Amino acid sequence: SQTIHQWPATLVQPVGSPLSLECTVEGTSNPNLYWYRQAAGRGLQLLFYSVGIGQISSEVPQNLSASRPQDRQFILSSKKLLLSDSGFYLCAWGPFAGGNNEQFFGPGTRLTVL
Amino acid sequence: AQSVAQPEDQVNVAEGNPLTVKCTYSVSGNPYLFWYVQYPNRGLQFLLKYITGDNLVKGSYGFEAEFNKSQTSFHLKKPSALVSDSALYFCAVRDISSGTYKYIFGTGTRLKVLA
What we know:
A: 4-stranded antiparallel β-sheet, 0% helix, B: mainly beta
C-alpha cells in the first residue's frame, strides 16, 4: 500500500533562517506531487506541484521554492524565512495517470516563524 | 475558470440528527468532485468522490454526497451525526481546464456536532 511521509512534524524557526521540509512517498511510481499551505486551520493554498523529476510548477510567487530530486521525494525550501511563512504545510500525491483519482495527504508540518 | 464554494464557515448539528455540508462548483466540462475531512493538526483524509454514474455517492464513515448537475452542487450528508464527526470538511474539484492535475479546494466548513 502507498504511504506518504513528512518531516519534521513541527518546526520553530527564527525570521531570516533557511527552511527545508521533506516529503517522501512509498508504494507508487511516478506520482504527481503537491505542496500546500494552510493558514489558521482554514483553506488550502497550492504552492507547488510536480509531474516528474525536476519538473516544478509554481502557483504563487513567494519566498519559497520546491525541488524534486527523486521520483518520490519532494522538498520545500526557503533561503530566508518571513513571519508570513508560518502555517501548516501539507504534502500530497496523486496517481500520474488518474485525473479522476483523489489525492492522498501527508500528516503535515507545523511551521512557526518567530 | 474552475471554482468551488463552501458557503458556510461552520455548521452546528445535534448528535443523532442528519447533517448537510454544502458545496457548489463551477467547471467547464464534466466535474470530478471530492470531499475530504481534516481533524486538528492532521492531514486531509479522503471521504468520497463523484466521477460519473449515480448521483448519490457513498463514502467512508457513513457519509454520502449528492451530485446535482442542474444546481451545480455536491452536498455532503450523513443521516445521523456523531460527536466524532466534528472536524473541518473540504470540497474539491479537479481542475481540468489547464490540462494539469491540479485540484481546487473550497475554503472549508467546520462541522460541530453537539452532544
